[in-house]
Design brief:
The chain folds into two domains: 48 residues, no CATH class; 71 residues, Arc Repressor Mutant, subunit A (Orthogonal Bundle). 64% of the residues lie in helices and 3% in strands. It is built from seven helices and two strands. Helix 1 packs parallel to helix 3, helix 4 crosses helix 6 and helix 4 crosses helix 7. The relative contact order is 0.15.
Amino acid sequence: MECGGLLLALEVLGSYLFDRQVTEWECVLEKLKRIPNDQVQKRLKISYDGLNDDTERDMFLDIAFFFIGMDRNDVMDILNGCGLFAEIGISVLVERSLVTIDDKNKLGMHDLLRDMGREITRHKSPKKL
């Protein structure tokens, strides 16, 4: 983990803010000021929350749980079979630096992002006692 995840946070937030207006940058900066520096996952979650729709968010969570290390084409077949429009969704996730594709066409994700995805799902689906 590099610098407590700060380099990752810079990359992910930079990708999220790329090509946005100054007012949007200011809004995100104010949001970041409210999150303590040691809570990198909460800072990273801003990019997840900023995804275009639930389809992209679901795709991110699916990759975090099931598809890290799998061939991109195989994952696209599975996700398309679930009606998730994988081609554009994976492109957006790569563009936002939330997912990577290596030279062997395998999907990857930084451990902090994977953990964030799993934590999001845990909060969405708490165990019933």
